[in-house]
Amino acid sequence: MLGVVRPSLWRHGDFRKLWTAATVSVLGSQVTLIAVPYIALTMLQATVFEVSLLAAIEMLPFLLFTLPAGAWLDRVRRRPILIAADICRAVALMSIPVAYLADAMTLTQLFVVAFVTGTFTAFFDIADQSILPDLIEREDLVDGNARLQVSYSAAQIGGPALAGNLMAVVAAPLAIAADALSFFISGGLISAIKKREPRPARALDENGRPTSLRSEIASGLRYVVGDRYLRPIAGCTGTSNLFGAALFGIFPVLIWRELGFTPAFYGTIVGIASFGFLAGAVASNSLPRSLGIGPTIIVSAALGSPAFLLLTLTPESALWAALTLFVGWFVLGFAQVIYNVAQISLRQSITPPAMQSRMNATMRFIVWGTLPIGSLMGGVMATILPVRVALIIAALGSFTSVLWVLFSPLRSLRDIPGEEGAEEDASQAAGEAETGDTAGRSVESDRLPEAANARA
User: Fold this and answer.
1) What angle do CA 145, 365, 37 make, to 5 degrees?
2) How do residues 238-275 score in pLDDT, each as one tens digit?
3) How far apart are CA 107 and CA 97, in angstroms?
4) What letter does residue 449 receive in the DSSP assignment?
5) 69 in any annotated domain
6) Contact 170, 39 (CB under 8 A)
């Protein structure tokens, strides 16, 4: 409502804890993001395909577990899941420095750790996106997501430089202990959140009996695929992530093996360039007001592919490489943050509470389920083609992702639906999803107008 000044989220104690936990966790994860492929390539002599396979295994749980996880998370309180996932990821990562000190570290262990951490990340990620609408008011979702992206941006600015320089001081496997510690801290902060979720009510079928997990998974799929806004967002993000995973699955081979850059050099350049994430976070709150939420999604989606292409052209000269990496990562971070804030806020706003986890799980299944496929695709291409050629092919393929949102109703969507209209329309959509009646829900209806390198 015009003229009403809402309390600042700075004063929201539970949001501050969630926000700080996210910042610490993302900061620590930058160490593992750089250290694990570096360990595989330089210490364990992994092949190009094995490096891409390592990235694929980490994302495989999003194909295997997200749909049942989303349906299950709509039945339980989410905060305990967040805490347990943080602790389990910390323990798994600590096994790497322990194995290194015992002179027992192997590539197989990296594969196992990648799968375990990926599994708990899948559960954490769905629960994390689903809990935010329970913590803050609906009118604060764009602001809340923007603030979370500011924290991610700050972590991504300092994280790569921290990781690269930490690896210059201690062995890369020992540096991963910093990421494990960040997960323990994150779990502790989330456990301190005071607001307690009510136990979700079980969905009932037409006979008054609790619905099965299978039927709830199916209803989540129907809800996302049948929605005229969610469907193009899923297609755009999934396509971008498919080709982005193909690119970044083999990008470490270009950086560490073919160009021979040091972790300190690469981490410092990427860290400085990550100010693009911060710039995007700052713009993500105001840009939808001037362009509209739909056009913001389209413009930000279009900016990512040129940045991908520029990164694949990184030259051998340290000076020109620094400039290329800086511009590519800056633009990529700027676009990614704006895209994620806009589309995640729209998704959260138009989805009823009882469907939040299933919606997020279905979106994750579609948009992150393409990541292991893309990583393997990149590995195969780099095995039969020169690495640079494979990278350029992946970058060019990513240009097709924007077509999903460009030719969709998002072009004319200026505002997130008002609360009353959103609840009525979302309830109707959820009801149709539960009953399977999607034929009567036209995608052209007049409804009023959602890392490291993967879009959410």
Assistant:
1) 80
2) 999 999 999 999 999 999 889 999 888 988 898 888 88
3) 13
4) -
5) yes
6) no
Give the mean model confidence (pLDDT) for residues 95-110.
96
pLDDT at 236 over 60: yes
Does 8 or 306 have the greater pLDDT score? 306
Q: What is the CATH number of the domain that holds 50?
A: 1.20.1250.20
In a domain, 207, yes or no: no
Tell the residue number behind the tokens 């706003």, with chain if given: 349
- Give the pLDDT confidence score for residue 440 in this predicted structure: 29
Q: Is the pLDDT of residue 183 over 90?
A: yes
Domain count, the chain: 1
Q: Is residue 198 part of a domain?
A: no
Q: Let me know if 106 is exposed, middle or buried by CB neighbors in 10 A (0-12, 13-18, 19+).
A: exposed
Is 68 within the bounds of a domain? yes
For residue 392, give the amino acid letter: I
Domain range enclosing 48: 13-193+213-435
Going from the C-alpha of 169 to that of each of 145, 263, 267, 352, 373, the distances in angstroms are 35, 11, 13, 49, 35
| Residue 231: burial class (beta carbons within 10 Å; 0-12, 13-18, 19+) | middle
Torsion 65-393-304-272 (CA) sign: positive
| pLDDT of residue 3 exceeding 70 | no
Q: Torsion angle, CA of 140/146/147/149, rounded to 10 degrees?
A: 150
Give me the mean pLDDT over the 401-420 stretch: 85
Mean of the pLDDT values across residues 437-445? 30
Asked if 138 and 124 touch (Cβ cutoff 8 Å), the reply is no
Tokens found for residue 67: 């749909």
- The 10s digit of each residue's pLDDT in 27-81 is 888 888 889 999 999 899 999 999 999 989 988 988 888 888 777 777 778 888 8
The DSSP symbol for 254 reads I
* DSSP string for 43-90: IS---HHHHHHHHHHHHHHHHHTHHHHHHHHTTS-SHHHHHHHHHHHH
Strand extents, DSSP E, 125-240: none
What pLDDT band is residue 201 in, cutting at 50, 70 and 90?
low
Q: What is the pTM of this model?
A: 0.75
